[in-house]
Amino acid sequence: MDDALEKKRLRELALRAAHTRRPQFTRFLEPSMRNDARAAANAAGVACAFCGGYDGAERVVAAFYADAPPEPSDYPLCVLRLQWNAKFSNPGHRDLLGAVMGLGLERETVGDIAMGTFRGAPCAHLFVLPEMADYVRANLDSAGRASLRVELSQETPEISPPEGAEVRVTVQNARLDAVLAAGWGLSRSEAQRLISAGLVKLNHAPNLHADARVGKGDLISARGHGRLRVLSEAGESRRGRQVLMLFVYGK
Q: What is the value of pTM for the model shown?
């Protein structure tokens, strides 16, 4: 959906929540739209909360409310469990996402795909709007080389920790180009070229500023390299450089 139309929709839902005093829910939002939802809530004089089906979800449904916040079970989302026989194939997140989006779904009807387990076996949890659940169950039968069994999950999803590694780096300044270069072992000039080419996002939003400040909790993604998150700012090294702890996904 066009950003302007999505922002208009957010404002309309927030105003409806103010007028009716009943919670109003969005469809799944891109992570970069959370601030727009908060702004719409503030302008309408209501509150805003988010739920993506599990702690740490990136794609979430926003709720606008005037009184008590909705319970997680009130949000219009459901969980589909994707299972396969690990003896023959083990699809990755990219395989699963490609298969789901190959069904022709609108992106805002689909939340995260979170890798996890079910009764000790690997699986994935797909979060969707309720009206899409039956369609996905009827049509999603494979991902990569794996045959899938898709079931509506009634249990609390068992989400696996993200794959990756913690990395300690030192930088002269916690700028976007410096952290990008340190996290993936690039030269500063290579990092700057990626940024100027529009291939780098900071907290899910494209950022063209090499000197943008980066701090604890920030998420950086670079096309062709992956994602990393700043876990902590750990003081200074003996040489006066800033020490950062990063989590590099998939490393």
A: 0.80
